[in-house]
Amino acid sequence: MEIVIAAIAAACYFYGYYRLAFWLIAVALFFTLLVLVKSISCPAWYFQRRAKAGLAEGKGFGALLAIKMAILAMLSLGMMRLAEPAGYEPIRNQIASFCPDKTQGLFKNCATWIRMSQKRP
Questions:
Q1: What are the tens digits of pLDDT across the range 25-67?
Q2: Could you please report the per-residue DSSP string of 7-31?
Q3: Do residues 29 and 98 touch, judged by C-beta distance below 8 A?
Q4: 89-101 confidence digits (pLDDT tens)
Q5: CA neighbours closer than 13 Å in the CB half-sphere of residue 83
Q6: Dist. CA 19–CA 88, nearest whole Å
Q7: Which sign, positive or negative, has the C-alpha torsion 33, 7, 86, 107?
Q8: If pLDDT is split at 50, 70 and 90, which confidence band does 83 have?
Q9: Angle, in degrees to the nearest 10, between helices 61-83 and 18-41
Q10: Which of 1, 76, 90, 100 has its CA 20 to 30 A from that of 68?
Q11: How much is the CA Rg of the chain, to the nearest whole Å?
Q12: Do the Cβ atoms of 82 and 25 come closer than 8 Å?
C-alpha cells in the first residue's frame, strides 16, 4: 500500500504538486510505521495475514523487518528531498539547530561535537 502512495506522490512531484507529494509521503511513512509496529506487537496478526495471502506460515518475519526498514529509509529521504520545494524549512536547518556550530560541514561538525561532549575527563 505504501508503495502505491509513494508512486502517486512521485507523479505529484513530477507535475509540480510538491506539497501534496510531501504529505502523501508522510501518509505512506505513517502507514509503514503502523504496519511495522502492529507486526512486532502482534505477530499472530502478521502470520494470519500471510496465511490469508497463501504464503508459508512460519517464515518471513525477518524479511518483513528488512523490507519495511528499507521502505522507511527511502520514504524518509523522499520527505527530506521534498521539504524544500514544498515550501517547508529544510530539515537540514532543523538538525543544525541541535549543534552549536552551524557551518558548512554540518554533519562532520555535529559528529565531532557529539564525540567531544561524550568524552569524560
A1: 989 999 989 988 888 888 888 888 777 877 776 667 777 888 8
A2: HHHHHHHHTT-HHHHHHHHHHHHHH
A3: no
A4: 655 555 555 555 5
A5: 13
A6: 9
A7: positive
A8: confident
A9: 160
A10: 90
A11: 19
A12: yes
Model-level pTM greater than 0.85? Answer: no
What is the grid cell recorded at 74?
527511502
| Grid cell at residue 106 | 554540518
**What's the one-letter identity of residue 70?**
A
- The C-alpha cell of 80 is what? 527530506
- Which grid cell sits at 23? 504529505
Q: 3-class secondary structure for 29-88?
A: HHHHHHHHHHHHHCHHHHHHHHHHHCCCCCCCHHHHHHHHHHHHHHHHHHHHHHHCCCCC
Phi/psi at 88 (nearest 5 deg)? -90, 155
For residue 83, the one-letter residue type is A
